[in-house]
Structure prediction request, 274 residues.
Amino acid sequence: MLRSAVTISLVEEARQGPFVFHGDLAGGCRKAAELGFDAVEVFPPQADAVDPKALKQLLVDHHLTLAAVGTGAGRIRHGLELTANDESKRRAARDFIRTIIDLGGPLGAPAIIGSMQGRHGVDGIDAPTARARLSEALEELGEYARQYDVPLIYEPLNRYETNMCNTVEQGVALLRSLSTRNVRLLADLFHMNIEEVDVAAALREGADLIGHVHFVDSNRRPAGCGHMDFAPIAAALQAIGYEHYVSAEAFPWPDSDAAAAQTIEAYKKFFPRG
Ligand code: LER
Ligand code: MN
Prediction:
């Protein structure tokens, strides 16, 4: 069964970012449960900023699961990228992600690699070198996540955020070039609206390699507040037998509570449960 989730950011530097709830893990969990979400997706500043026992208790108390844990603070707060020139920075980037895998893994949640993938064409990093560095990291971290029986999630981003992979097709090609089979794609509808010719067709092409969805409208407002055509997207997810999370990574527009309420309404409309 496909499951709903909502994002909670604990990263001060991401206050203006596309997260529904900000700065309050317990409050976000309470609201998520009140509205009927199945899960929360957490964006921590670093792994040790979250007490795993307290997080587990919050999830139990509110009958929620943990959908995923973001790693983006590794870049925005600590300046780490997997494609960096400096070997020690690349190692620190992988170490950072490993600690996030260790946080989410025991709770059944995968780590997401988005902005930490970095890019080529900066600091003299050429495309093949960047690709090799990213692939090496995905191989290692994908296998590392296996101990918790969770995948590693890799997110193609739009062209203004990376030039590693912008589309599902490029993401599929990257994953197929790896020897690990434990990396899946994140289909973020905001990035896809910018980059894909046809969002629903791209989801069908991604098929069982898609392991997570960021549910959001064209303008990064909550689903239903932009011009995204969700009916064919929902049909494509049903057609590929998608049974993971559809997680609201959207601006808290017009505010967090209204964004969460709007998302759950859109979720019920497009993914009705028998
Ligand atoms: C960044 O634009 C994004 O979509 C996040 O999920 C990645 O950290
Ligand atoms: Mn995203």
